[in-house]
Design brief:
By secondary structure, the chain is an all-alpha fold. The chain is 96% helix and 0% strand. It contains 2 helices and no strands.
């Protein structure tokens, strides 16, 4: 209650002042309020900037994590492709070896048949 009484007493003192002093007092109060509002606005602005900075740091962290995940998936896919291509290359090599062995084994038979055909052609002439 004493606090409120003191406030009312100060207000009565201000009201009892001359009009010139009242204007000066009101201008002083408005100036102080203006500085307070500017100070509060700047602090809020700094807090907002800090919050945005923290949010950006979080987003960068999430993006880097996603990028690492994608890189690991790409590496896994690459490893699987290399394994598949190696397997296919080995299969192709074994087929080529089988093909060459068949070619080698058939070559004397074909040469023998060609000789017989040549002899038949000579006999027909």
């Amino acid at each position: 209650m004493k606090y409120l009484d003191n406030i009312f007493n100060k207000l009565m003192e201000i009201i009892n002042l001359s009009s010139r002093k009242q204007v000066i007092f009101i201008l002083l109060v408005l100036t102080v309020l203006s500085f307070y509002i500017i100070y509060k606005f700047n602090n809020d602005k700094e807090d907002d900037c800090e919050a945005l900075k923290n949010q950006n740091i979080f987003l960068v962290t999430v993006i880097e994590e996603k990028r690492r995940h994608i890189d690991s998936l790409n590496e896994l896919r690459y490893t699987e492709q290399v394994a598949y291509l190696t397997k296919e290359l080995q299969r192709s090599d074994s087929l080529l070896k089988v093909s060459n062995s068949i070619k080698t084994s058939i070559k004397p038979i074909i040469n023998n048949l060609n000789k017989k055909i040549d002899k038949l052609n000579e006999n027909a002439n």
